[in-house]
Amino acid sequence: MTHSVNAPSMSRPISRPMSRRGFMRGVLGTAAGAGALGALSACGDDGGSSSSSDGDSGRLVFWHNYTQEARVNFMRDVADRFEESHPDTTVEIEVVPFPQFPTKWPAAQAAGNLPDVTTVLPTVAVSMWQAGALHPMEPVLEELGGTSAFSPGLLDRSAMYEDQHILLPHYVHNRLLAHRTDILSEAGVSLSERPSWDEVLSAAQATTKEPDQFGWMLKLSASDTGGGYLLWMLTRSADGKFFDADGTAMLDTPEVKRATEFLVELGRTASGPGQVNYNINDNFSLINAGTTVLAEVSGAEIGIAAVDAPDIADKLATTFMPTDVQPGHQMGAVSLALPKGNNPSLAQEFAAFLYAEENYVPFLHTIPLFMFPALASANSPEFFDEPTIAKYETTAQQTLTGVEEGSPPGFEDGPNPYAGPVFNSHVIEQMLQNVLVGGADVDSALATANQTVQATLDDISSRLG
Predict the structure, then answer these.
(1) 279 and 307 housed in the same domain
(2) Beta strands in 89-230 (DSSP E)
C-alpha cells in the first residue's frame, strides 16, 4: 500500500473490507447497488485512461485540501478500506493546501499528471472545467441517487455549469457574525439573531476601547480575500451584486456604494490600524485575545475554540450576518471533482465511497462545527447529536439556514467564470485600503475599482468567445 504524501497514516479499518458489490450496496442500498454496478464502468467521457480494462485495479491518485491531522488521518483510513475492497489497487493521497491548488493543477495538467479525484472550491472547478481538466460528475451523482441526494437547491447554486455537474459538494458551511458575549454584556449591548446594519455598528462602536480592543477588527489584507468577501456579503444584504450574469461590473451601483460606506464607517470608528494587514485566518487569534469583539466566521472558529480555548468558546455566540434588506449569506461548498487522471472508472467509485454512510457523518465529526452536511440524508440526529454540535445547536441551525438561502461568493446567479478571477484579483481589498488609508473618497475609489473589474470581466468573456 502506498501511503499519503505529507500525511501520517492511521490505524487499520474501522469496518470489515467489502467486495466491489458490497461496496456499491453500502453506498446505494442493495437493489440500487446491484443495478448500478455495471453502469459505473460504462459511464465517463474519453478524457482519461484506466489503469486496467475495467477500472477495478491500479493506481488511484487523490488530492485533498484537508491539512488538519484529524481530517488527514480519516482520509487515509477511508483509502485503506477502499484498497481492501479493491485488490491490486493503491490509493495515493497528496495533501494540497487551498492556496497552492490554483497553481498546482495547471502544472499537473501540462505534465499529464492530474489526479483521479480531488477536493476543490467551486470557483476553481469552473476554471478547471474551462481548461478541459475535469470529467462531469453525472455518473457519481446517479450512483448517489440523483440531485435529491443533496440539500435542496445546493447543486444549482454551486455545481451546475454549462448544463453539467462539474463537482459535487463534499461539505458546506456559511459565514456568521460571532461575538464575545462577555464583552457585549459588560457594555450593556445585545444583538438580535438577524441584526441590522445600524444595530451591529452601534454594538461595534460601544465595545471599542483603543488601543487594545475593537468592536469589529476588519481583515483587509491585499494578499487575502477577506475584504472582498465581507463587502460582497454586505452588498448581497443590500440586494446588490458585484457583477451580473452577462459579465457587466456593478461596483458603481447604489447598493455597492451603501455597503462600502457602511464598511468604511465601521473601519474608521470600530476597527484598528491592523485592519489592512489581518487576513481571514487571523479570526481565531483575534477573538481569543479579545482584540475583536465581533468577527465574520464560520462555525469552524467556535469548533476550534471548543478544543483549544474552551473558556473562550463558552463566551462565544453567533448571529446571522448584518441585515439591510436581507441577510448577506456567504455559503461555502468544499467539493469533490474528477480530474482527467489515469483511472476514471475507479475514480468514480472512490468518489462515491467518500459519501458512503460509514464514512460521511464520521468525517463531518472529525472537527465538529467545521463541516456541515451536503447530503440531505446526513442532516439528521446522527449529525446533530455530536456533543459540540449539540451544545452550539443555534450556530449549527443558523449555518444550515445560511446554506439554504445563500450562495458561494459571486455565485448568486449560479456558477460562472467571473467570480474566481474577480475575488482573487484583490481589487476590493485595494479599493478599501485606498479609502481607509489612502484618503480616497468612496465614489472615486469605486469608480476606479469598477473599471478594473470590468477589464477583468471583458478579458474572460473574450477568451470564452
Answers:
(1) yes
(2) 89-95, 117-120, 134-135, 160-161, 164-165, 168-174, 176-180
